Amino acid sequence: MRTTINLAEDAMLLAKSLAAREQIPLGEAASRLVRRGAMAPQPPDADRPLRGRFALLPGAARSSRRSMCAS
After folding, report:
1. What DSSP state is assigned to residue 64?
2. 1 pLDDT above the threshold of 90
3. Which residues neighbour 48 within 8 Å (Cβ) at sequence distance 6 or greater?
4. What is the dihedral of CA 43, 45, 47, 48, to 10 degrees?
């Protein structure tokens, strides 16, 4: 299928590198990379809710700032 997409420069360089290394057309290289990314296993904590920049551990009690400073 023919289409037009905008790729980030690093993604384009990866696709061009794969195309040259495998001696395949650029479109085929891009398709392979997209499929690879889509089929890659998700990290086990990918579905954990985030609090700030840190994932909460399963079953971890939520503590307030006040209770943490009371010690």
Report:
1. -
2. no
3. 55, 56, 58
4. -170
Residues in CB range of 15: below 8 A, 6 or more apart: 7, 26, 29, 30, 33
**CB contact set of 24 (below 8 Å; sequence gap of 6+):** 18, 32
Contact 19, 29 (CB under 8 A): yes
pTM over 0.70: no
- Tell me: the pLDDT tens digits for 4-55? 999 999 999 999 999 999 999 999 999 999 999 989 887 766 666 666 666 6
Residue 39 is encoded by which pair of tokens? 């089929």
- From residue 32, alpha-carbon distances to 6, 16, 22, 28 in Å are 17, 12, 11, 6
